[in-house]
TrEMBL record, chain A:
Keyword Nucleotidyltransferase found: no
Keyword flag Transport: yes
GO molecular function: electron transfer activity
PANTHER family found in the cross-reference section: ELECTRON TRANSFER FLAVOPROTEIN BETA-SUBUNIT, ELECTRON TRANSFER FLAVOPROTEIN SUBUNIT BETA
Name recorded for this polypeptide: Electron transfer flavoprotein subunit beta
All residue ranges annotated as the Electron transfer flavoprotein alpha/beta-subunit N-terminal domain in the record: 23-211
Protein family: Belongs to the ETF beta-subunit/FixA family.
Subunit-level organization: Heterodimer of an alpha and a beta subunit.
Protein role: The electron transfer flavoprotein serves as a specific electron acceptor for other dehydrogenases. It transfers the electrons to the main respiratory chain via ETF-ubiquinone oxidoreductase (ETF dehydrogenase).
UniProtKB/TrEMBL annotation, chain B:
Organism: Asticcacaulis benevestitus DSM 16100 = ATCC BAA-896
Residue sites binding FAD per the record: 203, 229-230, 243-247, 260-267, 281
Taxonomic path: Bacteria, Pseudomonadati, Pseudomonadota, Alphaproteobacteria, Caulobacterales
Purpose of the protein: The electron transfer flavoprotein serves as a specific electron acceptor for other dehydrogenases. It transfers the electrons to the main respiratory chain via ETF-ubiquinone oxidoreductase (ETF dehydrogenase).
UniProt protein name: Electron transfer flavoprotein subunit alpha
Protein family membership: Belongs to the ETF alpha-subunit/FixB family.
Length: 248, 312
């Protein structure tokens, strides 16, 4: 079984977000970039399926700038077998990402696509569902447990109110939630090995996909700041304050 | 311009997220219809018909729709979308599951988590866990959006109600996905998303027993919903759907009490729009204090019992 794992290069989740003064976007110059945490979980899950003997090959694919190569190398370090970078400096919207990934899936013919439920930069939470729709493959989003057997994936999903388990026929698209697994740390030998694994560079023009942005970003602003209030000495003072604030 | 709002409900009652999505929709148009889907949900459709500003309620029922399979719901909504310019969906876990499918089927973008309607084509949405706000303009003829309901007030309920309820056929289910089971957390407390007061516990609680023994009684005393940080959920102190934050629930209650939560940006993303924030944390440097209106630097082990006493 072959698994395709789309991975996105994003601002590291520990880095403080700075909005540019000219409101054109978020400042990404000279800051740490990493693999989207949900995608790391997706790669880890694929690698575990390979270690269980269920998967045979894992292909990591990223759409992004030249540096997204590093993101793919991270995936190869965790245990993916090869990578594809569709290199572009343009910001590609989820619908266009889904269309590009569909083209990759048609060429690669995976049995399963595991990807993040959301990229923590745009917070769209859309690409997996769109890809499933375009491929007309079943979807199981927000996965906290995946069991593959008899050509079907049993996916436990984190939903409002609790958990839901679905059976999806393969090929299918699964998106990961945080509790699916805890990605392993990269070992030095694996880092060395990763650098030797195949990494193919493609261009957007290699695919017959219209990636012209549909949305125009007029501005990016800082949210209204919340200011720190007061420290209270004890519970009684707290309750008195809450009463006068009218919330109790 | 006509807008179709997709109702969010728990199988018995409309959630007020429906009402709030309606508020967003009414900022776009006066021609707003509401779709209620599920099984045995006639009474929910009747309740939706009473919401002020609703032109018509569409009711679609089948056993399949009850399971909220994204493929089925998206097929239903996309079929109806022909008659509308905008489809507005509450950003619940169900909404987030099927909304992108509707957009893909219509070959349009998804406007995720709309928190402000600037004009008919311009919307504000949070990015980077709410650390930045993006104002986007679309020229697409059809718009599909999920609505961050904490950013909108609930529309008032009209006297007697005037909208009609019209039945629409449910599309045949897709074979690729089957429902196996569900585990719903049953609780007598208010729902996290709708509660006026939320009490959340973090990693500091240390165990499920401690979480239940400390957080639950405080929540019950206040008539509050219970929330948790990701660390508390990951450690099994609280169920997954208690998680507040960037990747959990977004809440904006009148009062949010964080107990033993450090205040990582991913947690703040889910609660910083609360009206009043209280933090109980023994570390005076904890980032949660930077957003708290009232901070109590103390060990929760003494602070929470004291608080219970002070509440009387
Ligand atoms: C992609 C991604 C998404 C995430 N999404 C979310 C999300 O949606 N929601 C979320 O919450 N987190 C999320 N996180 C995790 C987040 O970064 C933090 O790790 C998490 O919020 C920490 O939880 P905590 O505050 O309970 O634990 P900690 O950070 O460990 O804080 C515990 C706090 O308890 C205090 N404390 C300890 N003992 C006591 C005591 N006896 N009395 C009083 N105070 C005490 C400590 O001083 C400390 O401040 C996400 C992370 C990533 C990478
Ligand atoms: N540029 C990209 N390259 C590779 N994968 C992506 C890209 N953008 C989004 N994805 C995948 O889609 C998921 C959801 O992203 P989003 O819909 O943007 O929140 C991510 O977790 C990735 O797995």
């Amino acid at each position: 079984m072959k698994i395709l794992v789309p991975v996105k290069r994003v601002l590291d989740y520990n880095v403080k977000v700075r909005v540019k003064a000219d409101q054109s976007g978020v400042d990404l110059a000279n800051v740490k970039m990493s693999m989207n945490p949900f995608d790391e979980i997706a790669v880890e899950e694929a690698v575990r399926l390979k270690e269980k003997g269920i998967a045979t090959e894992i292909v990591a694919v990223s759409i992004g700038p030249a540096q997204a190569k590093d993101t793919i190398i991270t995936a190869l370090t965790i245990g993916a077998d090869r990578g594809i970078l569709i290199q572009t400096d343009q910001d590609i919207e989820p619908l266009a990402v889904a269309k590009l990934l569909k083209a990759v899936a048609e060429a690669e013919q995976p049995d399963l696509i595991i990807m993040g439920k959301q990229a923590i930069d745009g917070d769209n939470n859309a690409t997996g569902q769109m890809l499933s729709t375009l491929l007309d493959w079943p979807q199981a989003t927000f996965a906290s447990k995946v069991v593959v057997e008899n050509g079907e994936a049993h996916v436990t999903r984190e939903v409002d109110g609790g958990l839901q388990t679905l059976g999806v026929k393969l090929p299918a698209v699964i998106t990961t939630d945080l509790r699916l697994n805890e990605p392993r740390y990269a070992s030095l030998p694996n880092i060395m090995k990763a650098k030797k694994k195949p990494l193919e560079i493609k261009a957007i023009t290699d695919y017959a996909v219209d990636v012209v942005p549909r949305l125009k970003v007029l501005k990016v602003t800082e949210p209204p700041k919340r200011t720190a209030g007061i420290k209270v000495a004890d519970a009684a003072e707290l309750v008195a304050n809450l009463k006068s604030a009218g919330v109790l | 311009m006509a807008v179709l709002v997709i109702a969010d409900h728990d199988g018995a009652h409309l959630r007020d997220t429906t009402n709030k999505t309606l508020t967003a929709a009414l900022q776009l148009s006066t021609d707003v219809d509401v779709l209620v889907y599920g099984d045995g949900v006639q009474s929910i459709a009747d309740a939706a018909a009473k919401l002020s500003g609703v032109r018509k309620v569409l009711l679609s029922q089948s056993a399949d729709l009850k399971q909220d399979i994204a493929e089925d719901v998206a097929a239903l909504v996309t079929g109806l979308a022909a008659n509308y310019d905008v489809v507005a969906i509450p950003a619940s876990s169900a909404g987030k599951n099927f909304a992108p499918r509707v957009a893909a089927l219509l070959d349009v973008s998804l406007l995720s988590d709309v928190m402000e309607v600037v004009d008919a084509n311009t919307f504000v949405r949070p990015i980077y866990a709410g650390n930045a706000l993006e104002t986007v303009q679309t020229s697409e003829a059809k718009k599909v959006m999920t609505v961050r309901t904490t950013a909108f007030k609930a529309a008032a309920e009209a006297e007697g109600g005037s909208a009609t309820v019209e039945t629409v056929a449910a599309p045949a289910s897709k074979a690729g996905t089957r429902f196996i089971s569900e585990e719903k957390v049953v609780s007598d407390r208010p729902e996290l998303g709708a509660a006026k007061i939320v009490v959340s516990g973090g990693r500091a609680l240390g165990s499920k027993e401690e979480f239940d023994a400390v957080i639950d009684p405080l929540a019950d005393k206040l008539g509050a919903a219970v929330g948790a940080s990701r660390a508390a959920v990951d450690a099994g102190y609280a169920p997954n759907d208690y998680q507040v934050g960037q990747t959990g629930k977004v809440v904006a209650p009148a009062l949010y009490i964080a107990v033993g939560i450090s205040g990582a940006i991913q947690h703040l993303a889910g609660m910083k729009d609360s009206k009043v924030i209280v933090a109980i944390n023994k570390d005076p440097e904890a980032p949660i204090f930077s957003v708290a209106d009232y901070g109590l630097v103390a060990d929760y082990k003494t602070a929470v019992p004291d608080l219970m006493k002070a509440l009387g």
